[in-house]
Design goal:
The chain is of the alpha/beta class. About 30% of the residues lie in helices and about 30% in strands. The strands form three sheets. Strands 6-1-2-5-4-3-7 form a seven-stranded antiparallel beta sheet. The chain has a seven-stranded mixed beta sheet with strand order 11-10-9-8-12-13-16, sandwiched between helices. Helix 5 packs parallel to helix 6. The protein binds flavin-adenine dinucleotide (FAD) and FE2/S2 (inorganic) cluster. Flavin-adenine dinucleotide (FAD) binds next to strand 4, strand 5, helix 2, helix 3 and helix 9.
């Protein structure tokens, strides 16, 4: 069992959680992820480490409440325990020697972009962060990025915070100005696809952090298959970072929808059963 030490609501649907996990905290590096189960009979879901302390023995992650498991997670409190927490999984993100890097975080992707940007800064890269969200209520970690001291551009689809634009607008401007040597993008698959299309025009190498459906997270089940450069790769053990110009995004997005009906039924059943808050 893994004891919850800290919870914080970052926006309407986004939450941060800190968990006691000293062995894991000693090994984590930016870009890696964990698999957790809320209860003994529950499903395993992957989430990226957003922060950790080897000295104090804790790890943190940030999640968006989208379906059954993340709803259940959002109702847990300090003192409660998670049934399982496995990690660190996946390969760390490459940092250092990249030069001028645009780090793009879309929506809850900011949770992944944050430790990645921090690792790049620590490794001597010159980071410009681009944070995007549908609206101000979904924007997370802006203060943390500012505190890091990187150049920061905030955009929202509706203009309720920062500039009214998609993340690809400032990304394209940086490319046009010849101001970046590399891009790193994490967020919804469609956003990563358009970021990769934008930088491809300028020949700027681009890393994307993919989020295929994962079941075991250790290379055994094959559910996280992605096609990169015409070859089959596993998101969990070969990734999660890949060359954005070589990823087959159309296939990734269609595979992400495979269990849509089961997820809908499961979320509806959870809503029906859940007694942890008043019914609306
Ligand atoms: C390597 C990796 C890192 C991730 N990091 C984060 C993170 O830091 N923060 C965050 O909010 N989300 C992250 N995700 C996505 C997160 O795993 C899903 O949002 C979560 O599993 C949803 O579960 P649910 O039961 O609440 O929703 P469901 O109703 O089950 O699903 C809603 C949507 O979530 C996605 N999803 C569901 N199950 C999985 C699964 N097992 N693997 C991948 N995607 C799934 C699907 O796109 C699905 O349509 C990450 C995914 C991967 C693969
Ligand atoms: S999640 Fe099973 S092989 Fe990657």
């Amino acid at each position: 069992m893994f004891r919850i030490l800290h919870t914080r609501q970052l926006s309407d649907a986004v939450f941060e959680m800190g968990v006691e996990a000293p062995t894991i905290a000693r090994k984590v590096r930016a870009g890696q992820f964990l698999m957790l189960r809320v209860g003994a009979g529950g499903e395993r879901i992957p989430l990226t480490f957003s922060d950790w302390s080897a000295e104090e023995g804790w790890v943190r992650f940030i999640f968006m409440r989208v379906g059954k498991t993340t709803h259940a997670l959002s109702h847990m409190a300090p003192g409660d325990s998670l049934a399982d927490l496995v990690g660190p999984l996946g390969n760390p993100t490459h940092a250092g020697g990249l030069g001028r890097v645009a780090v793009v975080g879309g929506g809850v992707g900011a949770a992944v972009a944050y430790p990645v940007a921090r690792a790049m800064v620590e490794a001597g890269d010159d980071v410009t962060a681009i944070l995007g969200a549908r609206n101000a209520g979904l924007l997370v970690l802006e203060d943390e990025f500012r505190a890091m001291g990187v150049k920061l551009e905030v955009v929202t689809d509706d203009g309720s915070a920062g500039r009214k634009a998609l993340v690809t607008a400032p990304l394209k401007e940086l490319c046009e100005a010849g101001a970046i040597d590399h891009a790193f993008a994490v967020g919804p698959a469609i956003m990563m696809r358009f970021c990769a299309d934008t930088t491809a025009e300028f020949g700027v190498p681009t890393t994307v952090s993919l989020n295929p459906i994962m079941v075991d997270g250790t290379g055994m089940c094959g559910s996280c298959r992605v096609t990169v450069g015409g070859k089959t790769r596993f998101g969990c053990v070969d990734g999660p970072d890949f060359d954005g110009h070589a990823v087959d995004f159309a296939e990734l997005m269609s595979r992400q929808r495979i269990y849509a009906e089961e997820e809908r039924v499961s979320a509806a059943a959870y809503e029906e059963e859940c007694t942890c808050r008043p019914k609306e």
